[in-house]
Specification:
There is one protein chain. By secondary structure, this protein is an alpha+beta fold. Helix 2 runs antiparallel to helix 3. A hairpin with a 2-residue loop joins strand 3 and strand 4. The chain is built from 11 helices and 7 strands.
Length: 267
């Protein structure tokens, strides 16, 4: 076997370390999800195919070989969300990333502070009223894009952020209250937007559809999400698929400022 004659040198060692690091990152990203169980199933089938091939069982080898031949396509289909999230992490942390300070030295990257900077206290005030009245709501704060693909699933608003408007949109008699609100570049961009639902088996039986939707959009993008529980009447903060429940006002405002306030500005 080739693996037995494999010779180690410093290039091969670097190669091995990189493969292990990438494999570990992929494992961390898919662990606990439905895709993880599917991955185990695919690996089991592949291993069984090698056993069948070794013992020269032609019928089973042909059947399982069909699965093995389409393994790459199956991985792309099954793990499309995880692959998207992994590529997003690479792009966000790349030296060419939008938020890297050295990249902003170029003239075409100079930018002034957004004149429509969000007033997080106003948003949190509205969320507290919604929580007190047990009115469910989801508010999304994109970090690197306006999520136009998501906004297209709802109604375009493009209005200034005010407490009264947030309460009006999420009023239980409003036709826009069921979906999510997108706030980007200092404005309410859209409302009644449809979100992808998390398929994490550890969360499906713990949370309702609204919370699973908030978790799902943060699993697939780098957005920050606030979700108000209709049943329990509390506010939760969601980031990268992780949810912090029943968060208090001061901590919530601090987290929003930390995650969303512009950090690099050039004049």
């Amino acid at each position: 076997m080739e693996i037995l004659t494999y010779k180690f040198n410093w290039i091969n060692l670097v190669d091995l370390v990189l493969v292990l690091l990438i494999s570990w990152q992929l494992f961390v990203r898919v662990k606990g999800s439905l895709a993880f169980n599917i991955m185990i199933g695919l690996l089991t089938l592949y291993a069984f195919w090698w056993v069948v091939k070794y013992f020269e069982m032609p019928l089973l080898e042909t059947i399982l070989g069909g699965f093995a031949n389409f393994g790459v396509v199956a991985v792309l289909i099954v793990f499309q969300q995880e692959i998207r999230r992994f590529l997003l992490i690479i792009g966000r942390n790349s030296f060419l990333g939008e938020n890297k300070k050295w990249w902003n030295i170029f003239p075409w990257k100079w930018k002034l502070e957004d004149p429509d900077e969000l007033d997080f206290e106003t948003i949190v005030d509205a969320c507290q009223v919604l929580a007190e009245t047990h009115t469910g709501a989801i508010i999304i704060f994109p970090k690197t894009s306006e999520m136009r693909f998501l906004a297209a699933s709802g109604e375009t608003i493009d209005a200034n952020v005010t407490k009264r408007l947030i309460l009006t949109i999420f009023n239980k008699t409003s036709p826009l209250h069921d979906g999510a609100m997108i706030i980007a570049k200092g404005k309410i961009k859209a409302a009644n937007c449809v979100l992808p639902v998390s398929d994490n088996p550890d969360l499906i039986n713990k949370f309702g559809l609204r919370h699973l939707s908030a978790i799902g959009i943060t699993e697939q993008t780098d957005a920050i999400c606030l979700v108000i529980s209709e049943e329990r009447g509390y506010i939760s903060f969601v980031k990268e698929g992780k949810i912090t429940e029943a968060i208090d006002r001061e901590l919530l405002i601090g987290l929003l400022n930390l995650e969303l306030k512009p950090k690099v500005k050039y004049e």
